[in-house]
Structures are given as C-alpha cells and as structure tokens.
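Supplementary Data S3. Sequence and structure tokens for construct A.
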Amino acid sequence: MGDLGRMLVFVGGLLLVIGVVLIFAGKVNLPIGRLPGDIVYRGKSTTFYFPLMTSILLSIILSLVLYFVNRMR
C-alpha cells in the first residue's frame, strides 16, 4: 500500500509541475498548440484543428521523463 501512495504522490506532483509550466508558457507566449506542423482547416462554418507537432513534441518529452523515472527505480 505504501508504494501505491508514493506513486500517487509522485504523479500528483508531476501533474502540478506540468500545470505550472503550462500556466507560465501561456504568459510567456510560447507557441504550445501553434507550432509549425499543426494542422488547421478553416471552412465557411467549421474549423478543424489537429495539433500534430505539439502532440509529437509532448510525446517525446513525456517519453524522456518516464524513461528517467524508470531509471531511478
């Protein structure tokens, strides 16, 4: 039970850090969600948005974070 508690505390802390980074990224005008390679289609009455490059970048960052967390164990 103790291991589950530690893991939940770690995941909560990680989510807190990610949230703070996203808040500061919005204030600093980092182009998260508006990177080159994100697909935007604007029709007459519809808008389709697919953040392709943002998804790839977040995937790489999360993969590296989880790799290092796994190495620490």
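Construct B, processed identically:
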Amino acid sequence: MEVEPVETKTVYVTPQWVQSALDGEQEGYEDILIAEVGYGDVADCASYNEGHVPGAIYVDNCEVEDATGSEEGAYNLLAAEEVVDYMLNHGITKDTKVVLYGGDVSGTARQAFAYLWAGVEDVKVINGGIEAWKDAGYDTETEVNEGEPAEDFGVEAPAHPEYRLDIEDAKEKLETDDNFKLVSIRSEEEFLGETSGYNYMDKAGEPEGAVWGKGSESSTDVNGFLNDDGTVKDLAGFEEEWADCDFTLDNELSFYCGTGWRACVPFLVLYENGYDNISVYDGGWYEWLMHDDYPVQVGDPASDDCEHTTVGELPTGKAAK
C-alpha cells in the first residue's frame, strides 16, 4: 500500500507512514530516529520494556523539563543547553528526523514541543501511540536500544524562543494586548476554580483574563482533543471543540494548563497547520501561584459572579484529593 508523503511541519503521523519510512519509501526519511517517551528511568518504563516499536530508543520527560517543582524551575522547560545535552546523548541534532510516541498523549506532546523549541527541525508523533502501531499489525521488540551520541547540535538553542511565553510576558500581554488570548487547557472544574486539579497545588483559580480552551476532563487527560480511537483530532476537530470559546484562530494564542503538558497538544496541531501566532505559557497555574500579587479570577469570567482577587488572597484547601 502506497502511503502519501507528509510535510516537514506535519507532526501527527500514522503508523503506516512510519513503517513506510522504515521501509525506505518516504523520500528524505530514510534515516529516522524513533523514541518512546516516558517519565523516569528506562528500567521503570513498563510499556517500553513490554514491547516497543523496533529500533526505538527511550527518552525521558525529565530531559526537557524541571522535575523538582522548585520556584526556580516550576516544572518549566529546562535551560536550552541542558535539553540539547540530553538530545546529543541520544544522537539528536537539529537535522535528525525524530519520531516520538508514548503512553501519555500530553507527555509526548511536551517532548515534541521542547525539541521544536530547542531547534530540531522535523519532529513527528505516531498518532495513537503503541496501540495504534500494534492495531496496524506491526511487530514490537523488547531489546533496549540506545542512540549514537552526537557532538554538535547544529544551531544555537533555543532556535525558537517565540514558541515559549514566560510568566512576566503572559501577565503583561493580558494587561495590555486586546488581541492576546491566554487559553486555559484545563478541565471545567479547574477553570472555574473549584479545584486546582493537583494534590500539590492548594489554591484554585486562573490568571485574570484567561479564557477556556476546553480539552480536558481532569488534570491528567486531553480527552476533548482525542478521537474515539485515542488519536489526536485534526484541525477541524479542534475548531469544533472551540466553536463557542472566547477566542478565534486570528487571535495571538498562548496555551497553558497546570504545568505545561496539556497545553502542548493544541500548540502542535496549530503548528502543523501553519499557524505562527501561537505559544505555550510554560509556567501555567503552578508558577502563577508563586506570586501573591498576581491577579486571579475565580469562576466564569463572563458571569457577574466571577470573583476577581489576587493569589495571596485565595483560600486554601482546593488541592485535588
């Protein structure tokens, strides 16, 4: 079966496309690096050890973001040079054709986003992950693979600082730019300030001026952005999800969530469809909570009942149980 080629900026690809690349049938993709994304050491990643795409190496989410939750890191992306060092250890440079997949849709998107931000020019994700791969009838293996380390990344990182919005710029844009929309990719309960969604965040609410972008039923999913088979929806599916939201694709959009994972999914879908008015506000609600004087909304911002306050004045006791 002939599989159609895809563009460099296409992120979500089918297992059939990946297999055709492995078979040498996709021009320019005769040498791809496939990696399963997990959290923690490879020895602790059950899915990788039970069976992964043949030839796939293992990469860790902690290689792209701070995992301590400290005030300095706040689960934000690591410094670009650290991300690059980890990638070079795997043999990833700016020119590597990277194909990722993983058990967590958001975690995989986070890795893909970080690689693009740092400067890898072509990053793809197997849409549907290992289950889609197996459903397509392809084999797996259990051998632990490692990449061949590289020395030169090939570009100064981050090559695309514009993909990431820091907290100071997010706050300033909310206050001064009417075309800017800070889009919450959180559950309705999180957006309305009924719960923080996390057991380590004791206060709930959203940055004042944020709008809801739906997508999640809890802090651990992006079910609203997925098809019934677990694949990420296409652009039309996102537009349907967002039809009644308080933003359009003509706005400057910065997506955020609790700590940055869920927000990367809509970024990637818009990125692969050619949008350049997009970013991820990396710090999310977690970093916003570290500033007592930052403005907050609690409730539906379109409602007269919405409370406008500051982080320091928020009540505690809103952590997820």
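The longest helix spans residues 105-118. Residues 12-159 form a domain with the Oxidized Rhodanese; domain 1 fold (CATH 3.40.250.10).
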